[in-house]
Input
Amino acid sequence: MSDDWLAALEFTDHFILTPGPISKEMRNSLQTYFSEHEIAELCIGVALFHGFSKMLIALGREPEEMETTIVPTPHLPESSTVESVYVTNDFSHLFTYLPDMESRWAVLEESLLSLNALPEKVLSLSKHRMSQVLGVAHAASAPVGTYTDDEQFIRSVSENFVFDIRSISSSTRERIIESYGSQGLLQLMFGMALYDGIFRMEALSIA
Output
């Protein structure tokens, strides 16, 4: 296997298994073989593939004949609380080298929000919890007020989507459908797939 492939695979392993900043050595290795545009393409490609692959697993749609590899489950970051009162939902800095992708991301997120199957608070709650467990709580604001049992359940599902995808079982899906309907389940899974990817990109500190 060529050195550029090895560098890309090493980065992919880090992206999936160790969400957080990449080392100086890994960044130098990527820059040796790839342009900034190509690194950005690699980031968004892995982010979307990883997120939507997990969505299929969470929906119970993983092909039965597909071989699977069980990898160690990462732990939640020790620091997963908001450290700044500054909150932003602007991801434009992640698309500096892919300006066309920024508009496509906006379309994806607008499509997600337009489904209107979930209460806005529930989707926002899921988004914020995922930002917390991926160590980028500054990237999403928390809904105000107290949370119902159903909303607390969504927080735990969002956490499991990040770190323990196979714990999202048929009973998990049934409870979500009971509370929010089948369209609510699909909107939640679509949202978690998107935000798992974009928050992992944010955590890289690579832009």
